[in-house]
Amino acid sequence: MEQQEFIFQSVPAHEGVKEKERESSPRVYTVSEIVSLAEDLIEEAFPSVWVVGEVSGYRVPTSGHQYFSLKDENSVLPAAIFKGTIPGPMFELKDGLEVICRGTLSLYSKKGIYQITIDYIEPKGLGELQLAFEQRKKKYAEEGLFDPARKRRLPFLPRKVGIVTSPTGAAIRDLLNIMRRRFPNIDILISPARVEGEGSASEIARAIELLNKRDDIDVIIVGRGGGSIEDLWAFNEDEVVRAIYNSRIPVVSAVGHEIDFTIADFVADLRAPTPSAAAELVVPIREELRESVKRLRERLQDGLMRYIKTRSEILTDLKSRLIPPTKRFPDRYRDIDNMRDRLVYSIRSIYKMQLEQLGRLQAELRHLSPLSILSKGYAIVTKKGEAVPVRSSKDLRKGDEFEVRLYKGRLDGKVTKIYEG
Amino acid sequence: MSGGNSIKKDVSYEEAFSKLEEAVRALEKGDLPLEASIKTFEDGMKWAKICEAKLAEAKGRVEVLVKRGDDVVVENFDTGSSGD
After folding, report:
1. Quick check: A305 pLDDT over 60?
2. Scanning every residue of chain B, which has its alpha carbon at the shortest distance from the alpha carbon of A166?
3. Of B31, B51, B52, B71, which to mutate for an interface test with A (greatest number of A Cβ within 10 Å)?
4. Own/partner pairs for A265-272, CB < 8 Å, 24+ apart?
5. What per-residue confidence (pLDDT) applies to A23?
6. Which fold has domain A25-125?
7. B65 and A210: CB-CB below 8 Å?
8. What is the arithmetic mean of pLDDT over A302-315?
9. pTM for this one?
10. CA B62 to each of CA A48, A279, A292, B79: distance values in angstroms, whole numbers, following the listed order
């Protein structure tokens, strides 16, 4: 303020300079005086100018102001953007970028340099937002946020669809109408957010996070209706990009019209060209599903019927081949009959022979059995209570009781005397 | 995981539908023994039923998250003006 007052006061003095020069005694200025005069001249001559040039020596000290030079082949003009003087989204300045800017030329009296203080800047050729978009897209791509391997498949039939958009906007009507037309009983949960203007990016990000805290949402549609690049800008903001990237639930972006692209489209699992298209991508047509289940059910029934039919045909065929052999081969059958007769005869004669042999063997056996020996007058002596026959007089002692088996009947006895054999 | 011997309720529509398709294909091939064929048919019919149940499961609710102080609650969303 002080400086301005000084400048103001110095204007008449400036006019007086010429007079005094003519009077041949030169006026001696203080540094402050001359710098102020120069500043005054410059600011008066260039209150607001547009300058095109290349950014060079770009730097941002901790103050947050941005300093650089604008240059062309021959000249350099120092430039400054003071923090907070340029509203809205900013693209990234860097060396080599050609820019068009508007500002005031001023003199920085402490250093005696003049500079342009910029209040508007845009990249040459591209729109400012367009450039910011390209720069961010490149940055996120390099960071791997758009990696195709991260893209998840959408659920075939979501239990519940989450929608992040303005509850009063154009998109919600289209989304609801189309989804409910396709699947009348679809469940939908709207997580509301303003989709343009200051703070909308935070609201969108938070709305996505809220849906992620639930366990009933199978897919999220994030979007809004069409608008200018400024209107859609929230979908290029870091908060939204990160929220989509971090979403546990698959996200479909549905921002603006078919021609509009935002960073959200690249980071989402699927980009829908419009909100209406998103509704179609997310929700199947119920009648079509019913129809295909019905068709499969019919095929099951037909399949089983055909199976049974085929099997019974095979059975009929096999049965028809099971004609009694007498009908198919009468001669053979007679042969078999004869054979059987002969077999029976043979078996009978073998049986008879065996029977006779058995009789003979039995007779022989009888001959050899102890009983047949006993019939000849022999006897078996066993010690009382034992089964082993007594073979030697040494087997018994005087007074031992013994048993005598005869051909017919038994006798008990007692040893009275022993004669050694 | 092939074969339809484990029929659970908490499968997705998609899973149930692919089980149904599997059953149809197996049966149509016609090379299963009789008992397996009947079992495949029965399983397929069960999957078809589950598919149909899944399609009828949703309630057609349209709700909206609303901030109530520090809490976020679920309320019905007024779709009256949506034109349907």
Report:
1. yes
2. B64
3. B51
4. A265/A235, A266/A137, A266/A140, A266/A141, A266/A145, A266/A146, A267/A140, A267/A145, A267/A146, A267/A241, A268/A222, A268/A244, A269/A150, A269/A151, A269/A152, A269/A153, A269/A154, A270/A151, A270/A154, A272/A221, A272/A223
5. 62
6. OB fold (Dihydrolipoamide Acetyltransferase, E2P) (2.40.50)
7. yes
8. 86
9. 0.61
10. 55, 14, 27, 8
Q: What is the pLDDT of residues A225-241, one digit of tens each?
A: 998 888 899 999 999 99
Tell me which residue in B13, B34, B74 faces A156 most closely, judged by beta carbons. B13
pLDDT, one tens digit per residue, over A276-294 is 999 999 999 999 999 999 9
- The residue type found at A320 is S
Q: Is A168 on the interface with B (CB under 8 A)?
A: no
pLDDT at A36: 87
User: Which of these ranges, A172-186, A198-212, A294-308, A378-392, has the smallest mean pLDDT?
Assistant: A378-392
pLDDT on residue A262: 94
ipTM of the complex: 0.84
Whether chain A has a CB inside 8 Å of the CB on B28: the answer is: yes
pLDDT at A225: 92
**How confident is the model over B2-12, as a mean pLDDT?**
60
Do A61 and A68 form a contact (C-beta atoms < 8 A)?
A: no
List the beta strands (DSSP E) in A124-267.
Answer: 160-165, 187-192, 219-224, 251-255
| A206 lies within 8 A of chain B by CB | no
Residue-wise over A141-178: b if at least 16 C-beta within 10 A, else e? eeeebbeeeeeeebbebbbbbbbbbbbebebbbbbbbb
**B36: which 2 tokens?**
């397996």
CA distances from residue B48 to A297, A298, A349, B25, B30 in whole angstroms, order as listed: 6, 10, 71, 14, 20
How does residue A185 score in pLDDT terms, banded at 50, 70 and 90?
A: very high
CA atoms within 13 A of residue B27's CA, in its CB half-sphere = 30
Instruction: List chain B residues with CB under 8 Å of A299.
Output: 24, 28
For residue A301, the one-letter residue type is Q
Q: Report helix, strand or coil for A104.
A: strand
Q: Are strands B71-76 and B62-68 parallel, antiparallel or unpaired?
A: antiparallel
The superfamily (CATH) of domain A148-284 is Hypothetical protein af1403; domain 2 (3.40.50.10550)
Q: Which of B21, B58, B84 faces A186 most closely, judged by CB atoms? A: B58
Q: Can you tell me the distance from the alpha carbon of A329 to that of A317, in angstroms, rounded to the nearest whole number?
A: 20
Domain ranges of chain A: 25-125, 148-284, 323-368, 369-421
Q: Token digits for A414?
A: 């007692």
Q: Is A287 helix (H, G, I), strand (E, B) or coil?
A: helix
